[in-house]
């Protein structure tokens, strides 16, 4: 693994290795024994969109490993005044050992990777959210003991989370039924990749089909960052796609719920379902920290 731009960059063995290293990072942290594997290393944290979890978990995780993480708001860099991304990449690559970037276009992330000369990690784009889905898979494996054959459901927008969940779940050996409204399908290349997995993946428009028999149910907001002008139309188009008590009644006994947060209670998930599953949802948020440390340890310290 040279970069982490999307989950299809990883083989099954590489993905499970990230989860194994993350489990170890979590155990060592709980024992107060964080290894200082990033001592002397600096990581640029370049954000063009808001963030609570991604930014703070990276800053704290890099500190725990003895490194330096520098938060860089894209709005304050010369990129905002037109400096090309490929020039920014070449400059940051001279100072930093790795770059984490949250931006809009996946192509901009790929330009950073092509020109910086250092590992580049996606902090989320409009296409993918790989660190989030690695944390989700870590959480599901912690709770269920294995990912092999686990039946997952996704109810929501066929956007970055759906794209990464489809690739991540199928690569890890799970089964997934994704319910997306008409006009909100996941990316075409992701659906093409999913065809390799035969009946382990189904794309449907009925959220009840995604919920039925699910051992873990994933959802995400209906209005992602940058889509605010579409709010009213999206609320109409996603009517009936709320993860609520009626949907949960269709799932397998003990079904887990995962939400990347922030949540819009009353839209994609009810307050009742979120609070009933807060333990695993906030474990999922915590596991961002451990997964990110694992990815950095693998890319920068040869774990
Ligand atoms: N889930 C997630 O990426 O959270 P932030 O937007 O707060 O980073």
- Bin the helical content: 40-55%
Count all strands and give the number.
Answer: 9
Largest sheet: 5 strands, parallel
CATH topology of the largest domain: Rossmann fold
The total domain count is 2
Strands of the widest sheet, in order across it, are 7-6-5-8-9
Mean pLDDT: 98
What's the CATH class label of the largest domain? Alpha Beta
Q: C-alpha Rg, in Å?
A: 19 Å
Q: How many separate helices?
A: 12
Q: What pattern of helices and strands is seen along the backbone?
A: HEHEHEHEHEHEHEHEHHEHH
- Kindly name the structural category: alpha/beta
Report strand %.
5-15%
Distinct compounds present = phosphoric acid mono(formamide)ester
Q: Judging from the principal axes of the Cα atoms, what is the shape?
A: globular
CATH architecture of the largest domain: 3-Layer(aba) Sandwich
Please mark out the parts with pLDDT under 50 across 5 or more consecutive residues, or reply none. Answer: none
CATH superfamily of the largest domain: Aspartate/ornithine carbamoyltransferase
What features would you highlight for this structure?
4-stranded parallel β-sheet, 12 helices, Rossmann fold, 5-stranded parallel β-sheet, 14% strand, alpha/beta, 303 residues, globular, binds phosphoric acid mono(formamide)ester, 44% helix, single chain
Explain what the structure shows:
- With 303 residues, the protein is α/β, with parallel strands linked by helices.
- The chain has two domains: 7-129 and 288-301, Aspartate/ornithine carbamoyltransferase (Rossmann fold), CATH 3.40.50.1370; 132-284, Rossmann fold, CATH 3.40.50.
- Helices cover 44% and strands 14% of the residues.
- It is built from twelve helices and nine strands.
- Strands 7-6-5-8-9 form a five-stranded parallel sheet. A four-stranded parallel sheet has the order 2-1-3-4, with helices on both faces.
- α2 (53-64) links the parallel β1 and β2.
- α1 crosses α5 (130-144), α3 crosses α4 (106-116) and α5 crosses α12.
- It is globular and about 55 Å long.
């Amino acid at each position: 693994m040279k970069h982490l731009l999307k989950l299809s960059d990883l083989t099954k063995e590489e993905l499970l290795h990230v989860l194994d290293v993350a489990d170890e990072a979590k155990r060592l942290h709980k024992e107060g024994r964080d290894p200082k594997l990033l001592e002397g290393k600096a990581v640029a944290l370049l954000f063009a969109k808001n963030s609570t979890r991604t930014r703070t978990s990276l800053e704290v995780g890099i500190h725990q490993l003895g490194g330096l993480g520098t938060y860089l708001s894209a709005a304050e860099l010369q990129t905002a005044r037109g400096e090309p991304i490929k020039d920014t990449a070449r400059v940051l690559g001279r100072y930093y050992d790795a770059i984490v970037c949250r931006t809009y276009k996946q192509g901009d992330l790929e330009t950073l990777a092509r020109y910086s000369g250092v590992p580049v990690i996606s902090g989320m784009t409009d296409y993918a959210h790989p660190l989030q889905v690695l944390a989700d898979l870590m959480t599901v494996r912690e709770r269920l003991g294995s990912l092999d054959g686990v039946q997952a459901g996704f109810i929501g927008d066929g956007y970055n989370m759906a794209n990464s969940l489809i690739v991540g779940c199928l690569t890890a050996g799970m089964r997934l039924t994704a319910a997306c409204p008409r006009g909100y399908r996941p990316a075409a290349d992701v659906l093409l990749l999913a065809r390799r997995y035969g009946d382990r993946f189904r794309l449907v428009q009925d959220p009840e089909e995604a919920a039925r028999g699910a051992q873990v149910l994933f959802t995400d907001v209906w209005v992602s960052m940058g889509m605010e002008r579409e709010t009213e139309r999206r609320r109409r188009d996603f009517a009936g796609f709320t993860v609520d008590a009626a949907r949960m009644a269709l799932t397998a006994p003990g079904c887990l719920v995962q939400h990347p947060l922030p949540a819009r209670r009353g839209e994609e998930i009810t307050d009742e379902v979120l609070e009933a599953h807060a333990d695993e949802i906030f474990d999922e948020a915590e596991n961002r920290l451990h997964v990110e440390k694992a990815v950095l340890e693998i890319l920068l310290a040869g774990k």
